[in-house]
Amino acid sequence: MTTVQSPPAPTAAIRPKVMARAGLYAVLAANAAVVTVFFAQAGFASNALIVLGRAAGLYGALLMAFQLLLVARLPWLDRRIGMDRLTLWHRWVGFGLLWTLVAHVVFIVLGYADSSGLDPVNQLVDLAETVEGVLRAVVALALIMAVGAVSARSARRRLAYETWHFIHLYTYVAVVLAFSHQVAAGSTFVSSPAATAYWWTLWSVALGSVALGRLVLPLWRNHRHRLRVSAVVPENDDVVSVHVTGRDLDRLPARAGQFFLWRFLTPDRWWQANPFSLSAAPDGRTLRLTVKAAGDGSAALRRLRPGTRVFAEGPYGAFTTLHRTRPDALLIAGGVGVTPIRALLEELHGHAVVIHRVATERDAVLHDELRELAEAKGAELHLVTGPVAPDRLAPHELARLVPDVTDRDVYLCGPPGMTAAVLRSLRELGVPRRQIHFERFSLAG
């Protein structure tokens, strides 16, 4: 077994997550200030409703550009914030964008209707027929409302991921239509050469970030590394490990704890991509993922043949040693959530305590490897078995297993229910939030 150790984690004056989050807030605030200045310079209409409508439209355009940045999957942001948190921000900004654009339409229509004497419906029809770009804006709003409807939790639970993702792609159509509307009808857009240059630059950066992070970078990395399956190893009846090799893997910026969006190019599965964590620290020669059969896609991995081409997007995730704040660590895994935990243990420096929570010993995937690695690194390993109730990781149980838990970084990966329960236990024990690291493997956009 190859053990990859990282140097001791330095104590950073500013944590990477805080720096990235502050940077995003600063960028948004600075652009909001610029938009406000250009809006004021363009002058105000005599009708207060039209003024409010134009302001809502401008800030809606800014939020739309910010949305693109959140879903661009840029490595610098992802490694520091994490795709799950970017996805959460994307969700809330998306609902804010929807209501801002609705306000834009309502105020503009009511404002012009007040001046013309038409009723709101006929006024909207008149604007769509007589003002260039308005019809495109109406279509864009309808698309954004449809995406917002299917993104609601109740609707999202009823849709397959592929269906939801396909509908979500219409957001890009809405972005193009909205931008063309702004170019054609936006008074602030053409109010001055500086305003025009600003909006072109903003949209170019936003769309360029998406193209770079979601198209150019994945294509370039896969062309460079030429990934292929090198071995398929059953771990038990339900779990399989897939070993992947390629060229120049030592130049792939993957770290223990991260995941890829894997696409195995077989005739029946080339179109399906799934997020799976690395189950061993990258060693520059191979990558390994370990997967439990939970559906047709994951079950089909057992039938992969060595030599199968692989298209992988990533690495993604902030569940890494980059965010360490303490010299010692506690690693808690639930079930097959042990895969990134096992990889992290391989890379961690300092004393570690590992807790693996499973229903039965038979469910303890990779436990032999975990035990050997713990012995090699001088780590403590606890296998906790039994039914869900009573809670084997309740505050008093965690305090018994790890008396100095508040002095450690805690890395947690497991099913949602277990993750929520352990987070409650850590809070009750007084573990500072900055020392708790967990990630839900979801992808922005």
Automatic annotation (TrEMBL):
Domain (FAD-binding FR-type) spans 222-322
List required co-factors: FAD
Q: What keywords tag this UniProt record? A: 2Fe-2S, FAD, Flavoprotein, Iron, Iron-sulfur, Membrane, Metal-binding, Oxidoreductase, Transmembrane, Transmembrane helix
Output the Pfam families linked to this UniProt entry: FAD_binding_8 (PF08022), Ferric_reduct (PF01794), NAD_binding_1 (PF00175)
- Keyword Lyase: yes or no? no
What InterPro entries does its record include?
FAD-bd_8 (IPR013112), FAD-bd_FR_type (IPR017927), Fe3_Rdtase_TM_dom (IPR013130), FNR_nucleotide-bd (IPR039261), MRET (IPR050415), OxRdtase_FAD/NAD-bd (IPR001433), Riboflavin_synthase-like_b-brl (IPR017938)
Q: What is this protein called?
A: Oxidoreductase
Whose protein is this, by species? Streptomyces cadmiisoli
